[in-house]
Amino acid sequence: ILLSAGLLTLCAREGFMRFMFSGTEGAVAARRLILAAIFVPPGMHFLERLGLRLGLYEADFGTLFRIFGSVIFFVLMVWRSSERLHFAEIDKNRAHQALLDQQQQSARLVAEQELARATERSDARLRAIFESAFDSIVGMTSEGVVSDWNPRAEKMFGWKKEEVMGRRMSEVIIPPEDRQAHERGLARFLSSGEGPVLNRSIEVLALKKSGEVFPIQLAVTPIRFGGEVIFTAFIADISERKRREQELLETRQKALEAAQIKSTFLANMSHEIRTPLNGIIGMADLLVDTELDE
Predict the structure, then answer these.
(1) What is the SS3 assignment for 125?
(2) Rounded CA separation 124/116 (Å)
(3) Which of 48, 69, 204, 223 could form a disulfide with 62 if both were Cys (CB 3.0 to 4.6 A apart)?
């Protein structure tokens, strides 16, 4: 036995002995069972001979003692090894599950980070569009408070963003005579979900910081976020268009007046010319009908 163990030890890093000398639970169980298989039969035989020599039992009982003792010992060794392998498998499964959970958590974290970066890029693009828009873009909360104010709105109305944020919209850009109607319309929308000026383009008057009232084209869209409602208004200054339209109206009116003057003039001229011509025509008819004498 010692010689065989020594020869096997020389090859401790190869083949079967590599497994036997590893630290796995299977290797530990194998080492115990091999040692039991080597030492238990001789040990039980020794105990059997010792009992017979001391006269503790007869030869038949000694044989049974040796056989059953060896079987019981091996059963205990197998049970103990199986128990260790069972708990090792449980620990392995737990470790594997923990690794899977960690990988899933890492994957979720990476996905959340990617989503956050994508959201940041999207927000940056939207903010760039918002900041560079040609029209004024104004945001308002359901309480009627200014929530957004782009650079074009600063130029159009004369208010800086930091001056209007948190103020009521009706106090900033709505003429005094229209403020009550604005507040009533906001209250009606919050109670019924309907608004006559929402989701369409209308022309109204607006108020600048200087107090100047000017015409605008307004389109207001309500946007719902959960239980909250915000309003986004797109505003275009149509003062120049209205001025050109007024010029066209004035030009048309002048053309109509000129046409009327022309018609009146022609009617008068026709009358003034026709009156003397009637006398001349009458005299000509008379001369035609009258015989001439010396």
Answers:
(1) helix
(2) 12
(3) 48
Beta carbons within 8 Å of 69's beta carbon, 6+ residues apart: 44, 47
Number of other residues whose CB lies within 10 A of the CB of residue 138: 25
- Closest CA relative to residue 51, chosen from 62, 66, 39, 40: 62
CA atoms within 13 A on the CB side of 226: 1
Nearest-angstrom CA–CA distance, 30 and 20: 7
Q: What is the pTM of this model?
A: 0.52
Tokens 């339209």 correspond to 245
Exposed e or buried b for every residue in 84-110, given b needs 16+ CB within 10 A?
A: eeeeeeeeeeeeeeeeeeeeeeeeeee
Of the pLDDT bands very low, low, confident and very high (cuts 50, 70, 90), residue 280 is low
Encode burial over 14-42: b for 16+ CB neighbours within 10 A, e otherwise.
eeeeeebeeeebeebbbeebeebeeebee
221 Rama sector, left if φ>0, alpha if ψ -120 to 50, beta otherwise: beta
pLDDT, tens digit, 9 for 90 and up, residues 100-152: 888 888 888 888 888 888 888 887 787 777 777 788 999 999 899 999 999 99
CA 146 to each of CA 45, 137, 165, 201, 274: distance values in angstroms, whole numbers, following the listed order: 99, 11, 5, 20, 74
Beta strand ranges found along the chain (DSSP E): 136-141, 146-149, 201-207, 213-225, 228-237
User: Across the chain, which distance is largest between two alpha carbons, in Å?
Assistant: 207
Residues 6+ apart with CB under 8 A from 238: 203, 215, 216, 217
66-111 pLDDT per residue, tens: 788 878 877 887 777 777 777 777 888 888 888 888 888 888 888 8
